[in-house]
Write a structure and sequence with these properties.
Helix content is about 30%, strand content about 40%. It is of the alpha/beta class. The strands form two sheets. The protein has a seven-stranded mixed beta sheet.
Length: about 170
């Protein structure tokens, strides 16, 4: 819901022809965007999660795959990319950003969350990766994205404490 609110604040009423939820899990995050996307694809590693997503009827298509393999193999082009609570499983995000850019139509939106750190990226004691805002800005620029905005957010609770992070909105220039 926080990511949807971020998109709504920075775009006029917009619709997307093809959207990709990278790490869709049970489809919870995809539900917030489904009304904006004509053809929505969800990918995830877990078949169990994909079965739950299928039950929600959020996606037109669900695929069991990792992000890099899917993006390397798909022939489709997209105008919307979502990665909610996904980049905690990846350290170096540059390969993902490069592939998203290759599969993005001009004007495409790329919206995602990341936990905070002071370095480029680090593996935390929790076993989850965190990324610095400066690092995100640097690779966004290197990969040809316009940095629209980021905002601080409470991402999730862990052991009763809020995990702080940021929500990002990038866009491919025309």
């Amino acid at each position: 819901k926080q990511l949807r609110a971020l998109l709504d604040r920075h775009s006029s009423t917009i619709r997307f022809a093809r959207g990709l939820d990278m790490g869709c899990g049970t489809g919870l995050s995809g539900q917030a965007f489904a009304d904006l996307i004509e053809h929505f694809t969800g990918i995830d590693l877990s078949e169990c999660m994909l079965n739950q997503a299928r039950g929600k009827k959020v996606y037109d298509e669900v695929v069991q795959s990792d992000i890099l393999s899917f993006l390397q193999e798909t022939k489709e082009m997209y105008d919307f990319f979502l990665a909610a609570d996904v980049f905690v499983y990846l350290g170096d995000l540059q390969p993902v950003f490069k592939l998203v850019r290759q599969k993005a139509h001009p004007g495409a939106y790329f919206i995602f969350s990341s936990e905070n750190c002071g370095e480029e990226f680090t593996l935390q004691e929790s076993g989850r990766y965190a990324h610095a805002e400066g690092y995100i800005k640097k690779i966004a620029e290197q990969c040809g994205f316009d940095f629209v905005c980021c905002q601080s957010a409470r991402l999730r609770k862990d052991k009763g404490e809020w995990i702080k992070g940021k929500l990002y909105l990038l866009r491919v220039g025309f």
